[in-house]
Design a protein that fits this description.
With 367 residues, the protein is mainly β. It folds into two domains: 229 residues, Sulfite Oxidase, Chain A, domain 2, CATH 3.90.420.10; 113 residues, Immunoglobulin-like, CATH 2.60.40.650. The protein contains five helices and 24 strands. It has a six-stranded mixed β-sheet with strand order 16-17-24-23-19-20, with no helix packed on it. The longest helix is centred in the first third of the chain and has 9 residues. The structure holds the ligand Nc1nc2c(c(=O)[nH]1)N[C@H]1C(S)=C(S)[C@@H](COP(=O)(O)O)O[C@H]1N2 and molybdenum atom (MO). The site of the ligand Nc1nc2c(c(=O)[nH]1)N[C@H]1C(S)=C(S)[C@@H](COP(=O)(O)O)O[C@H]1N2 has 18 residues, from strand 7.
């Protein structure tokens, strides 16, 4: 494999997951070149065009031959099912806007920085997903009385944490039976693009993205808790390398703004003309509705106006007018949800760099 030359500051290969204070590594650049974020100006769309939606793929994009592809639903059930894409499309369908966010969004802003996909803030997007609810399928299969979880497995596999495994995640039966949990085959009215899980993915609204298994091939009811790497080791809130820590599930409250004015090409610093400036963006949470968004100019906070919600599991638009005065300013935004959770203006560090919802900070020069 050809590796780009970035920093040679570490003598030994950096280990995945370890925190560093050093410059970006080759491994992070390789991941960043594959997995892209949503450019923040795309926050202006209610529904993110598919090509602008963030992308996170642990291993490689599998090429799934749709004619031979079947979804198998088995394990601790009374009737195993094997469904083609046509079978799934023939079932009752639901279309709804859902905001997906990677649990690692904000990781690269942490100090020290956990070595993994180096997200800044754009690992988010909202698509209109079409599919069929999962619960009726589980009822048809008839879950055994001793089934405790469902394991969702993708067609992709690779090596992580020393183990070679397909990408797989589980949900408790309670979680899987929520009416909003769906098997989806369309994104923004089109078949799923290869990178977003063609032909079928799980969609778990309100949860961080890792739960929404792409390239779904099987659903297995199991009678003990699933201990695969992506479930038992990755995606835990930890303070150091040793577990167990708390498993990651629902999306923490966050707001983001479209950076105002125009950018400097290399530094990305914003340049804005003095006078009224419409600041706007989106806010979302997996823990309840968005109740408040505030914008801070040099530490002075003012309330933003909220638009009507797009849907129960989608981000909400907000806006506020800032009368910009000449000079250098720091513009921030923060949101609060109906659980009372408010974004912090300081970092709250954890070992895997998960759920860093620290308030966005944009440096602006007004001229
Ligand atoms: N099979 C499979 N499903 C997966 C992943 C993966 O690597 N393989 N990545 C997960 C993670 S970590 C995230 S954040 C979301 C990203 O979904 P998107 O690329 O469609 O935005 O998919 C999830 N589902
Ligand atoms: Mo993710």
């Amino acid at each position: 494999m050809v590796k780009p030359r970035v920093s040679q500051s570490t003598a030994k290969e950096p280990a995945a997951g370890q925190p560093t204070d050093g410059p970006l590594t080759q491994e992070e650049l390789l991941l960043a070149g594959r997995n892209h974020s949503m450019p923040l100006e795309a926050l202006a769309h209610d529904i993110t065009p598919a090509g602008l939606h963030y992308l996170l793929i642990h291993f490689d994009i599998p090429q799934v031959p749709v004619d031979q592809w079947r979804l198998r639903l088995g394990g601790a059930v009374s009737h195993s099912l094997e469904l083609s894409l046509a079978d799934i499309k023939a079932r009752p369908s639901v279309t709804m806007p859902v905001t997906l966010e990677c649990a690692g969004n904000g990781r690269a802003l942490l100090q020290p920085r956990p070595l993994s996909q180096p997200w800044l803030q754009g690992a988010v997007g909202t698509a209109e997903w079409t599919g069929t609810p999962l619960a009726p399928l589980l009822e048809e299969a008839g879950l055994a009385s001793d089934a405790v979880e469902l394991v969702f497995t993708g067609a992709d596999s690779g090596i992580q944490g020393g183990a070679e495994e397909p990408y797989a995640r589980s949900l408790s039966i309670d979680e899987a039976m929520h009416p909003e949990v769906m098997l989806v085959y369309a994104m923004n009215g089109q078949p799923l693009p290869p990178q977003h899980g063609f032909p079928l993915r799980l969609l778990v609204p309100g949860w961080y993205g890792m739960a929404s298994v792409k390239w779904l091939t099987s659903i297995e009811a199991v009678t003990s808790r699933f201990m695969g790497f992506q479930q038992a080791v990755a995606y835990h809130y930890l303070q150091g390398p040793d577990g167990p820590g708390l498993p990651v599930s629902h999306i923490r409250v966050r707001s983001l703004m479209v950076p105002p004015g125009i950018p400097d090409f290399f530094t990305r610093r914003r340049v804005v003309e003095a006078g009224p400036v419409m600041l706007h963006g989106k806010a979302w949470s997996g823990h309840g509705e968005i109740e408040r968004v505030e914008v801070g100019i040099d530490g002075e906070w003012m309330p933003a106006q909220l638009d009507d919600p797009l849907g129960d599991f989608a981000w909400r638009s907000w806006s506020v007018v800032w009368v910009a005065t000449p000079g250098d300013h720091v513009v921030r935004c923060r949101a609060m949800d109906s659980s009372g959770a408010l974004q912090s203006t300081e970092q709250v560090w954890n070992y895997q760099g998960i759920g860093n919802n620290m308030a966005q900070r944009v440096e602006v020069t007004v001229r």
